[in-house]
Amino acid sequence: MDRAEPRQAHDGAEAPQSPMPRHSEEPAVDHDGQPALPPPQPLALEQPERPRGRHEATRRRSLGGPAGVAIAVVVASVVLAGVLATWLISSADEAPDPAPAGEAAATTAEGAPTSRPLGPGSFGNLVVNWSFEQDLNGWEVLGEADSSREPQGRTSGSCASVRARGPEPGRVGLALPEVVPTAGKGQRYVASAWVRSSAAGQQVTVRLAGGGKEVSRTTATTLPGLAWKRVIVDHTVATAGPLRLEIVADGVLAGDALLVDEVVVRQG
């Protein structure tokens, strides 16, 4: 018998065929009679990146991390260098011509916080070397004494010092022979000076003397320690001629000093 032919029953009838299972005709149910959920699908494996075609645009990658920070620093440095170069060029164009050596020295002296320039003081002061910042030029020393610049002026860096050296107490001080070269008759002048002494209680006199015997004077007592005392005198000219200014202390012992600062003489 050929295996491909259906078997024949002994009575000539065709043998019954076994039924084929049907999976898609009837839905599967669970034990409660409810439709069962479909079985879980296996997770799809990550697909490798497919190669891009020649007509597809290349994805742009954003700059981040250390590379982005480095580029930002380079850009900022370039911008800052450009700004500084522009500023330096403009400063060089606007720089003034250098001043002569003498003018530069005078400017330095004026700019120092504890120095004052030579020359008349403010508001018409007739005394040239009035604050003794460099020396005692123009002043005469009176009595047996040594003169010098001392540190710690009243409001500046130095003052004038006249230290007695005689064997006996005596008069010492400073004088300007012609503080006013030509004073007219009837004109009024006011002189003032700040004084102190190494020994407290020293009698100090400021004098304005004209032609003949006309003299105006004011006497004051120096204060203790480093305190300064201002002495003021005014004088009205009786006879036309030069005026002499004196600042003196009487009875100064050897080794003691009279200190003078900010001497002012004005007309008015």
Walk me through what this model shows.
It is a single chain. By secondary structure, the chain is α+β, with helices and mostly antiparallel strands. The chain has a domain at 140-267: Galactose-binding domain-like (Jelly Rolls, Sandwich). Helix content is 15%, strand content 32%. It is built from two helices and ten strands, in the order H-H-E-E-E-E-E-E-E-E-E-E. Strand 2 and strand 3 form a beta hairpin. The chain is elongated and about 95 Å long.
SSE diagram, text form:
Layout: H1 65-94, H2 101-111, E1 140-142, E2 145-151, E3 158-164, E4 170-183, E5 188-197, E6 203-209, E7 215-221, E8 229-236, E9 241-252, E10 257-267
What is the CATH homology-level superfamily of the domain at 140-267? Galactose-binding domain-like
The number of helices is 2
**The level-1 CATH class of the domain at 140-267:** Mainly Beta
How far is the first residue's CA from the last residue's CA?
A: 162 Å
Shape, please? elongated
Largest sheet descriptor: 5 strands, antiparallel
Q: How helix-rich are the residues, as a percent range?
A: 10-25%
- SSE pattern: HHEEEEEEEEEE
Total strands: 10
CATH architecture of the domain at 140-267: Sandwich
The fold-level CATH name of the domain at 140-267 is: Jelly Rolls
Mean pLDDT: 76
The low-confidence runs, each spanning 5 or more residues with pLDDT under 50, are: 1-25, 55-60, 94-120
Secondary-structure class: alpha+beta
What is the gyration radius calculated from CA atoms?
A: 56 Å
Output the strand order for the largest sheet.
1-4-9-6-7
**Percentage of residues in strands:** 25-35%
